[in-house]
Write a structure and sequence with these properties.
Layout: H1 11-20, H2 22-25, H3 29-43, H4 63-74, E1 75-79, E2 85-89, H5 91-111, H6 144-156, H7 160-172, H8 176-181, E3 196-201, E4 206-211, H9 222-232, H10 264-276, H11 285-298, H12 303-310, H13 318-342
Antiparallel strand pairs: 1-2, 3-4
Length: 349
């Protein structure tokens, strides 16, 4: 366990410096949780003398010491159903731990230059994502027909908000954390901009306005807009997507995302809907976002049009970028709808 008041100069102290720094506050909640788990994994590793790695002075840290701890973190021993001890690799967790420690060291070194060594022992470790024998892990990509089937099942089960959100992630290519944790009703067709929607990226603080109609006034997303218009008619403020059923402890509809920015309940509901729809069990909510990207590529969207949709730009570039990409967004949306119409055997919604 980490002491309440870490001893100055220890790794536990370095972690406390990192968490108190402005850089920590700028990190999104999901990454913060990942860093917390990674830092704790390293700090709580027991050494040969019975002490924790976190209790050691960072001035004594060497690359050899860090590599030795990493090797221990890579493999964990567990008992199977028969009580036998089996070993399994947890490379992803070990790598995430090293990443978090590296970031903590860099931040700590800038904040306490005299106390934190300039050489970062967690830097340039040559971490491998997977072993040579391990296949690359990919998120399954959903098809349009699977999206339609998912939405039908979601509505039948009473999860209309999830059905609409799935179409939104397909159309606007937004991550689930953004859709359920940042998209507010005030962002959609406000009085001052009734023909636009504000897309927010909590991870980097970026925001941008998307056009909802083309130059002729035709809707670019008619199905999605019809559903969002219906939601807006019943809401005044707050997050757009809320749980469709009352919580046992609250009469109000709670957001899908928790106060700790957790979406585990949503993921469980998505799995339930996937099963009810008879779809591939490996599909997740993210699969529909990937499906939207694939549809974009199949529609011959240019790299610029795909980048415009994904919205990966720094805040300093947004003023000119918004003007430059409006045509790209409209063009991309039209191309995707045309591809959808021309594809054979499409399921109707």
């Amino acid at each position: 366990m980490v002491p309440a008041t870490p001893v100055p100069g220890t790794f536990d102290w370095l972690v406390s410096v990192f968490k108190a720094h402005q850089k920590w506050k700028e990190i999104d909640h999901k990454t913060q949780r990942s860093y917390e788990n990674g830092l704790a994994l390293f700090a709580n590793q027991k050494l040969k003398d019975g002490s924790r790695a976190g209790s050691k002075q960072i001035s004594d840290f060497t690359k050899r010491f860090v590599d030795a701890i990493y090797a221990k973190l890579l493999v964990v021993e567990e008992k199977d159903g028969d009580g036998n001890v089996v070993k399994r690799e947890r490379r992803r967790s070990a790598n995430a731990s090293m990443t978090a420690c590296r970031r903590a060291w860099f931040v700590g070194q800038r904040a306490h230059e005299a106390d934190v060594p300039a050489v970062n022992p967690f830097s340039r470790m040559g971490l491998k994502i997977r072993t040579l024998a391990m296949p690359e892990r990919q998120t399954p990509t959903a098809t349009w027909d699977e999206l339609v089937a998912f939405r039908i099942a979601a509505n039948k089960l009473g999860y209309g908000s999830v059905a609409t959100a799935a179409l939104l992630t397909w159309e606007w290519l937004q991550r689930q954390e953004h859709i359920f944790g940042a998209f507010e009703i005030s962002h959609y067709r406000p009085n001052e901009r009734p023909n636009s929607v504000k897309i927010v990226h909590p991870k980097n603080g970026e925001e941008a306005w998307w056009p909802l109609f083309d130059e002729t006034g035709a809707s670019l997303f008619p199905e999605l807009m019809a559903e969002l218009d219906a939601i807006k008619a019943t809401m005044i403020s707050g997050l757009v997507f809320r749980r469709d059923h009352e919580h046992r402890r609250s009469r109000e509809q709670l957001p899908w995302i928790t106060a700790r920015k957790d979406l585990r309940y949503l993921r469980a509901v998505v799995k339930k809907i996937v099963a009810a729809a008879g779809l591939r069990s490996e599909l997740s909510f993210t699969s529909f976002r990937h499906g939207g990207f694939t549809e974009g590529a199949d529609s011959d969207l240019t790299d610029a049009e795909l980048r415009a949709a994904a919205r990966h730009r720094s805040p300093h570039q947004l003023p000119t970028y918004a003007k430059r990409t409006r045509k790209q967004l409209i063009s991309g949306a039209k191309k995707r709808r045309e591809e959808r119409r021309n594809a054979p055997h499409r399921l109707s919604e």
